[in-house]
Amino acid sequence: MLDAPKAARMLIGGQWVDAADGAVVETLDPASGKIIGTIPDASASDVDAAVAAARKAQGPWAATPPAERARILWKIADLIEANIDELSELEALDQGKPLYVARWAEIPGAVGQFRFFAGQAMAIEGQTITPSITYQPQGKEMRAWTVREAVGVVAAIVPWNSPLVLTAMKLAPAFAAGCAVVLKPAEDTSLSAIRLGELIQEAGLPDGVFNVITGRGAISGAALASHHDVDKVAFTGSTATGRAILDASKGNLKRVSLELGGKSPVVIMGDADLNLAIPGAANAIFFNAGQVCVAGSRSYVHASVYDQVVEGLAAYAGGLKLGHGLDPATQMGPLVNARQAERVSGFIAGARSEGAAIVAGGERLGPAGTFITPTVVANVTASMEIVREEVFGPVLAVQKFDDVEEVVAMANDSVYGLAASVWTESLSHAHRLSSRIKAGTVWINCHSMYDASLPIGGVKQSGYGRDSGREALESYLETKTICAVV
Ligand code: ADP
């Protein structure tokens, strides 16, 4: 059974340490509001030490044979898998998610990342190129080729909604490419990253290739984003923090990848299989209590099936069992903290006052006020805040449409462009809508389908760069061109 650390430490250069000034922040069980323990509250000097450790380790790690890097990545995957029950319980306790979400989606997702990128580590290759340069000394020939080299020291800054898999989405391609990483998990959910650090040490990753800095984002996260010896920041989180990171990164023009917020549309056509579409649309928003960057928070339903779908969604929402993440019967847990629950209930109150109808849920419950009942909001219009803003909670806004042109315009009427789903039995609708909806990912008859092989990331204000897939590996590599007279 779970033994969460009471006074957790951070990992710098292979050593488990407190913050240099001894500062800590408390970490809570979001369901009960009780303190589970503390984590170090790192300052800029701790960040300096972690970046220095990463810098020292990076060169030798990049020079390690790819097969050896792959072997260690595969071993990390094996160790995560061997400790899946403990990691799932830790995530359920610290983040609040139901055990089944951690056990069957999040932690296996992390395993998949390390396995996929173990293979990719051995498939890094450049090109040979024949240039048209006319300069050619007598008796000599020109040759040119490219090599792919690790970006260097990476700061991975991750949020609190799915801590372990989002961490793995940064670490696995970075390690495969030969980068060293300083990870900054979110202050509310650092425990799984700390346990991952122990497993990564056990897997034999050389000291300093992986470092964990904990504490407040505005202090240690900001110090990493502005650090002159960090070569790349890989960020997942809110659009506002993404902007702050981009500003902070200017000093040394470090590479930045941003996987930000979303307001993903779920389009249910009149010809959809509603036995699939209704639970699918409900899961798209209620999974992980809506704390998913690709959550399907706007549903557009064809007029011919609108009443049936709204009724089905409301019934589904009303049937979900809320509870502590560690209770195996729980289908939906609390939000990550009281501040987030307050914010989400503010959006619900706003929708009510703008004239929307709350057809399911809408309540805030629990000893710490962190539970929001699964909420379906109908009678919404395109200008309402509930349709425009990312809520990051279990709140679905449903609108009616009449034809394809109208729903394409509705789906694209957002500053975000992270993901979308289309529910239809028509091949023509599936193709036409998936090509016209502006989003980094469009799912057809499914939603939130992640895999280590599938690039995920946004267009518009949902950010740039991709996690997962070959493209993620490429983003941790630079191209060096070599042009030679031989
Ligand atoms: P939220 O606002 O919901 O807490 P964020 O996007 O701010 O989500 O958090 C994602 C990650 O960014 C967390 O690890 C957090 O500590 C970190 N963070 C927060 N503010 C900053 C900042 N100014 N610079 C760098 N990282 C930050």
| Strand adjacency order, main sheet | 14-17-18-13-12-20-21
Domains (count): 2
Q: Structural class, from secondary structure content?
A: alpha/beta
How does the major sheet shape up? 7 strands, mixed
The top-level CATH class of the largest domain is Alpha Beta
Mean pLDDT: 97
Radius of gyration over alpha carbons? 23 Å
Shape: globular
Kindly state the number of beta strands.
24
- What percent of residues are in strands? 15-25%
Amino- and carboxy-terminal Cα gap: 65 Å
Annotated CATH architecture of the largest domain: 3-Layer(aba) Sandwich
Helix content: 25-40%
CATH superfamily of the largest domain: Aldehyde Dehydrogenase, Chain A, domain 1
Active site: 259
Keywords: Oxidoreductase, Plasmid
Family: Belongs to the aldehyde dehydrogenase family.
Organism: Novosphingobium resinovorum
